[in-house]
Amino acid sequence: MNHTVKPASLAPAEAPAGHTPYSDWLQTELLHSLQHPVSAHPGEHAWIVSAQVSELYWMLIIREIQAAQAQLRADDLAGACRTLRRVVAHHEPLNATWRSIAWMTPVDLLAILSCVGPKYGKDTALQGWTFRQMVYLLGIKQGEHLQHFLPQPHRWQQLSKALAEPSLYDDVLAHLSRQGFAVPAPALDRDFSMPYTPDQAVEKVWRDVYADPDQHRELQQLGETLADIAEGFCAWKHLHLMATRRTFGARPAYFGTEGIAWLLPTMNEIPFPELWSARGFIGDAPAVCPHARGQQGGREMGRRD
Ligand code: HEM
């Protein structure tokens, strides 16, 4: 696609009354009317802005992933990689938002949260649809989270659709299959709303993609970009967990159980599973490598064949 700006499209237009072209384009009047603190705490504005910026980035990542999926479906691998590099880039400022609220102690957080409930009711970030849609697109499909959106039928519908549709990883596997790799049928033709089950044969596909540094270079670049995306996502989750430890400790959270106990198991939800597990046997170990000894029987999944 040609993105060159044509001079004719630069013809001057009038901004609406009360706006400059800048405020009209970027909707700054609307944007700065969206923060409504409920407490008297001077840091609540930072909390709201930080959460709102995260919301914007999650939506941005959703749009990018959907664009990459369309490119993969058209077997435009170079285009998909370029789009996914932007997802890697967006994770940097998204993860940096935690710095804005790193000053919080439990006293600060509770001063704010104690005013949220009386005004808005019992809230949890699990009620945020952008994060959940992004997670579904990354291939972590857990239908139980839909329950939070029953009061928001249009978002419930949107997320139900996202749950039932192929994730980014599903589209990557379909692309690999069309390129002649032996992706097994159950990994391709399945109920996409169900959690993905890792498969030894898919591990072997990734091993083959990486086996020779000079072969399948573009696919290796895709694999490394996916690894960067998974790292960015997991880094966010780690920062969130640490912020929770720092401000909330072992208090019971939304479900009545300790917030940290609820969050900890989710740290093992790492996108693109075989891309990671295959690394245990990508490349040939030196014949005398002491670490290679005795490994054959110890692997959970694939083995060399
Ligand atoms: C620093 C104070 C924070 C604490 C103590 C905290 C605590 C928690 C807890 C306990 C959960 C588990 C579900 C629940 O019980 O509600 C959770 C989930 C979540 N929180 Fe926070 N949170 C904090 C800040 C934030 C911020 C600033 C965001 C960004 C908007 C955020 C986004 C999320 C998301 C997306 C989940 C779902 C995680 C998942 O499903 O893996 N949290 N949080």
Automatic annotation (TrEMBL):
Keywords: Dioxygenase, Heme, Iron, Metal-binding, Oxidoreductase, Tryptophan catabolism. Signal peptide: none annotated. The keyword Transmembrane helix does not apply. The keyword Metal-binding applies. Its EC number is 1.13.11.11. InterPro entries: Trp/Indoleamine_2_3_dOase-like, Trp_2_3_dOase. Pfam families: Trp_dioxygenase. It comes from the Bacteria. GO terms for biological process: L-tryptophan catabolic process to acetyl-CoA; L-tryptophan catabolic process to kynurenine. One of its GO terms (molecular function) is L-tryptophan 2,3-dioxygenase activity. PANTHER family: TRYPTOPHAN 2,3-DIOXYGENASE (PTHR10138:SF0). This is Tryptophan 2,3-dioxygenase.
